[in-house]
Design a protein that fits this description.
The chain has 296 residues and is an all-alpha fold. The protein has 18 helices and two strands. 51% of the residues lie in helices and 1% in strands. The N terminus is likely disordered.
Length: 296
């Protein structure tokens, strides 16, 4: 959804999230299940007011990540300061609850504990972005409509909650953010990436169709001369490539086959660098045909 290296850097922002993903997802159906399966979830944390303090096993953030309101309330009763708790990446308890889809916990953190709705981690990612990335439409709706979250907040690379929703491919979350009066669905990040780059990087044809139906150009090319074809090919998304290039209802972006990036590489040459040799082999005759048409 941004430059390839940056996609991987952004993916690492979710490392802490991934540590508890299985427990958080298993806990999504209720607090009792969260207590049973989230008890072993361990997230080191510190009080943000003491940024040099050592990370400790407090249990408050872990409870929120697992969706256990009961355990979170018990931690608060024991002195846990939810409003100031952060993990090693600067993620708040609200971010963990939002990313896990735990609406009841998110509401308690905001309304009873005073956690800041637009607090940002070290990469300027907010709770709304966490909810958007994981397709947590109910939590995103609450954050926007009741808690007053700002959908215009940007990460360090200028990516937004809408961008993350597109990457997730969750249509209700995308619709929610696209309908918000303060969201510009045509906005670019600092690399010149539009929503189509995020959708193509995810390889989600449904999302690409949705963007097209919204009137967005799927032919947009970013500052590195990477369009949807490069983004889909980089990750080996053959179905998305087929749709982007050949489908009757698709944009037929064959002109992107003749493009070269800033270093003069074809899309096939570029994606071989990411180990996508089968995709490159499939693309090479298509690129040759497009180049021949250009010469003619």
């Amino acid at each position: 959804a941004v430059e390839e290296l940056t996609i991987e850097q952004l993916a690492r922002l979710a490392t802490a999230e991934a540590e508890g993903a299985a427990n958080a997802d298993a806990a999504a159906n209720g607090d009792a299940d969260a207590d049973a399966k989230g008890g072993g979830l361990e997230i080191l944390e510190r009080d943000a007011r003491a940024p040099t303090a050592p990370l400790q096993r407090v249990g408050g953030i872990a409870a929120c990540a697992a969706g256990s309101l009961r355990r979170a309330q018990a931690a608060a009763a024991g002195g846990w300061a939810a409003a100031h708790a952060i993990d090693k990446h600067g993620n708040t308890a609200l971010m963990w609850a939002a990313g896990g889809g735990h609406l009841e916990v998110a509401r308690w953190l905001l309304e009873a504990q005073g956690v800041a709705v637009d607090a940002a981690n070290k990469d300027q990612r907010t709770a709304l972005m966490w909810a958007a990335k994981n397709g947590r439409a109910a939590v995103a709706s609450y954050l926007l409509d009741e808690a007053g979250a700002d959908p215009t907040c940007r990460m360090k690379d200028d990516s937004s909650a809408f961008d993350w929703a597109v990457l997730s491919g969750d249509v209700p979350t995308m619709e929610l953010l696209a309908a918000h009066p303060r969201v510009d669905i045509q906005a670019l990040n600092k690399f010149g990436c539009a929503a189509v780059q995020w959708a193509a990087a995810a390889g989600n044809v449904t999302t690409l169709r949705w963007l097209q139906e919204k009137g967005l150009s799927l032919g947009h090319v970013n500052a590195a001369r990477h369009g949807a074809i490069v983004k889909a090919a980089w990750k080996g998304h053959s179905d998305a490539l087929e749709w982007l290039l050949h489908a009757d209802d698709g944009p037929r972006l064959v002109e992107q086959l003749g493009m070269r990036d800033l270093e003069g590489r074809t899309v096939a040459e570029l994606v071989r660098l990411n180990g996508q040799h089968e995709v490159a082999a499939w693309l090479e005759p298509l690129i040759a045909a497009e180049d021949a048409k250009a010469v003619a």
